[in-house]
């Protein structure tokens, strides 16, 4: 009887270790980079001419516009486009675009 018990234990042991090995093969190493579809994993940078008007400062006859976190004055170019007008809450560009401040900043709801 001893050989039958030991062979049954051996079979049970082998089945359990094979099961663990198969399960371990399907687990992903959490320290490895994520799966990719063959494309580059780098962060895409915007190469288009998207511009964000961050703020405007006007005092007397001078006006400054902060666009993409850089300070510009009237007549200067931002990404190759000349600034033709700096208003209280907007900037007009020579290519016809008009950059405006965020709605929440310029619109005071409930105030008359």
Automatic annotation (TrEMBL):
Keywords: Signal
Signal peptide range: 1-24
Protein name, per record: MSHA biogenesis protein MshK
